[in-house]
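Support request, please re-run this one:
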Amino acid sequence: MANLSHLRRRATLLRQIRSYFDEQGFLEVQTPCLSSDSIADRFIDPLMVVDAGLPGSIMRATTPSIARPPMMLHTSPELAMKRLLSLGMEAIYQIGPVFRRGDRGAFHNVEFTMLEWYRVGDTYESGMRFLSDFVEAVLGRGPAEERCFGQLFECETGIDPHAAETGRLKRCASKRGLAYPESFPDVEGSTDPTDVEPWIDFLFAELIQPYLGGESPVLVRDYPVWQHQMANIDGGVARRFELFVDGMELANGYDELNDPAELRRRNRAVNAMRTAAGRIPLPQEHFLKAMDECGLPPCCGCAFGVDRLLMILCGARTIDEVIAFPIEEA
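Re-run finished. Output below.
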């Protein structure tokens, strides 16, 4: 049953967020939820929409035969928002629903609310400061403490994540009594990012993340290069940052990559890994065309989980407590 007091708190929070960004000179935008482009991620799948109601289509009792590829409900408004930046917008934010196939649990619902923003001219450092200032304004728990991913990981495990190999990571998990998935790569001595990444993510989630942000928020920065996603790389690290409060990841930001050739290369590389894992490739043609034709100005951007922030503000233990209806009741 929906918690009405939490829903009222949600409305207050949304007004507070909009007021903050408006005062900072940002423009609220609204991009399509339905798109033929998608963020290409090894482990995140979009929801496919076979019948997108395109011109000439008719609702029938039987499944229609669709000649064109299906469209997708976006997993993030990132690509469309960057297209707006390429057209000349400078400081924009968006609050709205995003969708991720199979995401379900105490902190996950297939549909959830994301706040995302981008500002031209922001650097890696100023982007992190803006996030810290914002979360202090809405949460009131002091400025964020910055920690480097490599230092956190090595301090807890004794392993440098930037030069890790699977054998040591597996032995660390076993020594700490962690039950890891049988599907994890079990290639002794491999330093291939495809093999290493699941182990790094698992150990971080089990041994480090639960203890981050218990008093003041923690900003983790400078991730391994193979966790670059769409971030620039400099000094042997990905210029990516994440914010944690009460052991939950609230935000994920980048010093945004704006090299069209490198964006295409990364898209091909991720889709090759998706195909090898039995997942469908995810196109970004509208986005990549915009990058080729107009380019993306230097900027920093961040995605922020509104539902998780509301969980913290309301003292809720699950996402179901702060949304109107979970996926099973929608």
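The chain has two domains: 1-40+69-144+260-330, 148-210. The first helix runs from residue 4 to 23.
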